[in-house]
Amino acid sequence: MNFLYPEILWNLLWVLPLYFILLFYSASKRRKIVKKIIGLRNQKEYINVSFGRRNLRHVLLFFVIVFTFVAAARPYWGYQLLPYTSSGRDILMVLDVSRSMLSRDIAPSRLDHAKFLMRKLIEDTPGDRYGIIAFAGRAFLECPITEDITSLFSIINEMNTSSIPVGGTNIEKAIEQAIKAFKAASGGYKAIILITDGDELQGNCTGIIDQLRDLKIPLFVVGIGNPDVPAPIQINDKKGNLVFLRDLTGEIIKTKLNEELLKKLALATDGLYVRSTAANSGIDELEKRISALVPEKYSSTNISRPLERFRISLLFAVIALLFWLAIGERKDT
Questions:
Q1: Alpha-carbon Rg for the chain in angstroms
Q2: 270 and 151, same structural domain?
Q3: How many domains does the chain contain in total?
Q4: Residue 219, CA distances (Å) to 115, 180, 188, 213, 250 in order
Q5: CA-to-CA distance for 236 and 109, rounded, in angstroms?
Q6: Both 250 and 314 in a single domain?
Q7: Which residues face 49 on adjacent strands?
Q8: Could you read off the pLDDT of 37-69 as tens digits, one per residue?
Q9: In angstroms, rounded to a whole number, what is the distance separating the alpha carbons of residues 142 and 146?
Q10: Helix, coil or strand: residue 160
Q11: What is the mean pLDDT of residues 271-278?
Q12: Are 220 and 194 in contact (CB under 8 A)?
């Protein structure tokens, strides 16, 4: 026998000892109360209780607890084949990993907030397929489009400002890489989510935006940072201490969200712009637009599904409970 949630059974290690402790405590309490009433007389002569039946009820309640936990752990044996058709949307998440994303005007940093946003979006949209592109001065496909959430999360966790050795923020290169990953195929079920602060822009986005319009691929832009107040960038020095990033003259380099340009990029592709903050991540707006995309059928196949047998354990628990309710503790007269 196997279980879908075997960790639930570990709770029996404290539930059952607690059950026996309560039985012992209640029996001790009962004897003290009876002693106060009848004194030192023989309790068995004055109490019309069948101790055998009482113990049987304790055993039945024990099995009620055990079978209930076994049912909750979802036991199964055997498998059945079921037809399965996977469908969803193809979405490429394009993450800015330039050093300006280390700014902490949004806690714990722009980059960490962006990675949280990506994980949350994947969790909230099951069935959709995601790919990941990291970019700074250049762009690189970190993960092709996949349904494997474990792989996606692993890659997201490992991404940092060292992922792309060339500095800057070249959105043109990033979108070019996204189009290559899509193999330039059109369809209303594809989208690009660009997550960036838009600072230190390089390249020319005009031509690449025209390609997105022709391919009918919307660009959902997530702005990270503060558009009003420039924030310093903190990096680790050789000793691992946090220091401010400075230019050649020794001045602290500051960065702010280039919101005006990012809004224009989203508007040009009939997409969406949201500014993600600690108070409002913008997840709801993104999910609404993603759900509006027409899902594409990926493949039709058969999947094996475990045959759950929790009903058997649940039935035994109910039967034991009914006997516990039906059996009294009084002696037959």
A1: 32
A2: yes
A3: 2
A4: 18, 15, 12, 9, 38
A5: 13
A6: no
A7: 330
A8: 777 666 566 677 788 888 999 999 999 999 999
A9: 12
A10: coil
A11: 92
A12: yes
Nearest residue to 144 (alpha-carbon basis) of 102, 193, 183: 183
Is there a single domain that holds both residue 75 and residue 126?
A: no
Label each residue of 15-61 as H, E or C.
Answer: HHHHHHHHHHHHHHHHHHHHHHHHCCCCHHHHCCECHHHHHHHHHHH
Residue 286 falls inside a structural domain: yes
Sequence-ordered list of residues with C-beta below 8 angstroms from that of 91, at least 6 positions apart, any chain: 128, 129, 130, 131, 145, 190, 191, 192, 193, 290
Residues 73 and 97 in one domain: no
In a domain, 333, yes or no: no
- Least reliable range by pLDDT among 13-27, 146-160, 170-184, 299-313: 299-313
Cα–Cα distance between 327 and 55 in angstroms, integer? 11
Beta-strand pair 129-135/90-96: parallel
- What's the rounded Cα separation, in Å, for the pair 231 and 227? 10
Per DSSP, the residues of 248-290 read TTSPBPEE---HHHHHHHHHHTT-EEEEE-SS---HHHHHHHH
State residue 317's pLDDT score.
Answer: 95
CATH at residue 126: 3.40.50.410
Which pair of tokens denotes residue 234? 């903190």
Q: Does residue 254 sit in the same domain as residue 189?
A: yes
289 is a domain residue: yes
In a domain, 248, yes or no: yes
- Cα gap 161→234, rounded to integer Å: 12
Residues 53 and 198 in one domain: no
Residue with tokens 């279980």: 3
23 lies in which domain range? 2-79+306-326
Range of 138-142, 187-191, 296-300 with top mean pLDDT: 138-142
The 10s digit of each residue's pLDDT in 104-132 is 999 889 999 999 999 999 999 887 889 99
Whether 277 and 310 share a structural domain: no
CA atoms in the 13 A half-sphere facing the CB of 127: 16
Is residue 310 domain-shared with residue 167, that is, in the same domain?
no
Residues 241, 251: contact at Cβ < 8 Å? no
